[in-house]
Amino acid sequence: MEQTFQGPAVVVRDLYKEFYRDKLTIPVLMGTNLQVERGDYLALMGPSGSGKTTLLNLIAGLDRPTRGEVVVAGDDLSRLSESALARWRSQHIGFIFQLYNLIPVLTAFENVELPLLLTPLSKRERAEHVRTGLEIVGLADRMDHYPRQLSGGQEQRVAIARAIVNDPVLLVADEPTGDLDAKSAREILDLLGRLNGEFGKTIVMVTHDPHAAERAKKLVHLEKGILVDGTNQPKSEGIQVETSQGIKA
Ligand SMILES: Nc1ncnc2c1ncn2[C@@H]1O[C@H](COP(=O)(O)OP(=O)(O)O)[C@@H](O)[C@H]1O
Ligand SMILES: [Mg+2]
Fold this sequence. Notes:
Layout: E1 10-21, E2 24-36, E3 41-45, H1 52-59, E4 67-72, E5 75-76, H2 82-92, E6 93-96, H3 108-113, H4 123-136, H5 152-164, E7 170-174, H6 182-197, E8 202-206, H7 210-213, E9 218-223, E10 226-229, E11 241-242
Parallel strand pairs: 3-8, 3-9, 6-7, 7-8
Antiparallel strand pairs: 1-2, 1-4, 2-11, 4-5, 9-10
Helix pairs in contact: 4-5, 5-6
Bound molecules: adenosine-5'-diphosphate (ADP) and magnesium ion.
């Protein structure tokens, strides 16, 4: 699919997110601003509970902000109804989770095919896309395997094939190496690096792992509800982040 829109992959403007629990208001994001250019590879770090997953879910259209704007691939998500947003997500976003989230009763092939069942592609076209996806992640020979027959690293590679099979504008990854041994984690990071470098995929990755963060092109930290740039990292040069105080890196 050609990416026809102009402008950045993601624009987050003055974003606020509060949760409500037992009559308490829990402010999580407090005026977050972020711009992710097409072809960028951004790592989002921050202490546990700082709102990384919350921000990622808002960017991916899985949740709605309290206020503020999220524009992805030129689409203002606040303008989409629930059903339109679900359709939009399936066409524009590839999700990669810490625990892979594969369906245990489906084979690798069937797991990767899932997002395509929502498209008008024929069975044969779907099979071609699935094969290509599994080839990219190096698991074409495991198509008929069930998740329990795969290692954690292989499961994550199947999940990545599923995330890219629709050719989404944006890949969001929430702690994609968080449950993996060092070697498998490196393989996943190599793969994400290739998807960005070779295939031009825009990636936003939440991670605790400094080794993972250092593979990204840019780094931001979420602290006390706002984003601050990661100037401690040499690769964060040229980052475009604004905090609510208007500090620009
Ligand atoms: N659905 C929810 N309802 C209430 N509180 C939530 C919900 N989701 C997240 N939170 C709270 O928001 C804060 C940020 O959570 P999260 O975004 O998951 O942080 P992180 O991913 O950085 O660890 C935490 O205090 C968490 O308890
Ligand atoms: Mg999280």
